[in-house]
Design goal:
5-stranded parallel sheet; 2 domains; Trp Operon Repressor, Chain A; Alpha/beta knot; alpha/beta
Length: 252
């Protein structure tokens, strides 16, 4: 897959693309990332990419023409027009299912807005999808683009050290959309706390049950909405429901 990132600050991406385990995805081309700066195609001596908003108000707005010209350059390289994604407060909230959709796609053009935003005429003409990573405002779309790229890269084959690792991430359907359980490593005792005995038992069925119970307890305490979603989808067993009922009684 190929992702073309349109950003005024391509240098921000250099350490991101070459650091950490997900760099395997970028260096191998499994997630092929290309960076484009609208200033490179902007007109005039100053190569302006932004201007003051009509109607007044603070800040600047990214101009439509440099962005459109950048899309033309990208289309020329690709040989076709790709889907265009803008990171925006009105966008669909990024979650595991949306990440999975993009991980199974051919990629997209990611528009990293800056300042007060992007000229609406460009959005109306070219943007196919808008994505939000939360109800807060950042200085630009670069960090959301990295969030999407990192999440997509983790799901590609041969990127993580253990091919099954991401199946045990929180929110993954393999965990029925629940939170992951706690994890422990050496030493067996630290700061007066011991590793749960069941994890040292070598009894795989008991370990699996303990982990499931912990997932349910953590999710019920911190994200009850995920419990409700799993229940509505029929993902909870009778044993799961018994544990959840006991938790509710203890809380009550």
């Amino acid at each position: 897959m190929r992702f073309d990132v349109v950003t005024l600050f391509p240098e921000i991406f250099a350490p991101f693309l070459t650091t950490g385990i997900t760099r395997r995805a970028y260096s191998s081309g499994a997630v092929d990332v290309h960076l484009f700066n609208p200033r490179d195609v902007a007109s005039g001596n100053y190569r302006r990419v932004d201007d003051r908003p009509f109607g007044g108000g603070p800040g600047m707005v990214m101009m439509a023409e440099p962005l459109e010209k950048t899309l033309d350059v990208i289309a020329s390289e690709r040989g076709h027009r790709a889907k265009v994604v803008l990171f925006s407060p009105i966008g669909q909230r990024l979650d595991h299912s949306l990440v999975q959709e993009w991980a199974n796609s051919d990629g997209a053009v990611l528009i990293c807005g800056r300042y007060e935003g992007v000229d609406q005429r460009f959005i109306d003409a070219h943007v196919d999808a808008q994505i939000s990573i939360g109800d807060f405002v950042l200085s630009g779309g670069e960090l959301p683009a990295m969030v999407l790229l990192d999440a997509v890269a983790r799901l590609q084959p041969d990127v993580l050290g253990d091919a099954d690792s991401h199946h045990f991430d929180s929110f993954n359907p393999a965990l029925d959309g629940l939170l992951d359980c706690p994890h422990y490593t050496r030493p067996e005792a630290w700061a007066g706390q011991a590793v749960p005995e069941v994890l040292l038992s070598g009894h795989h069925i008991n370990i699996a049950r303990w982990r499931r119970d912990q997932q349910l307890r953590l999710t019920a305490r911190h994200r009850p909405d995920l419990i409700a979603a799993a229940r509505a989808a029929g993902r909870l067993t009778a044993q799961d429901e018994d544990l959840l009922a006991s938790i509710a009684i203890m809380v009550g």
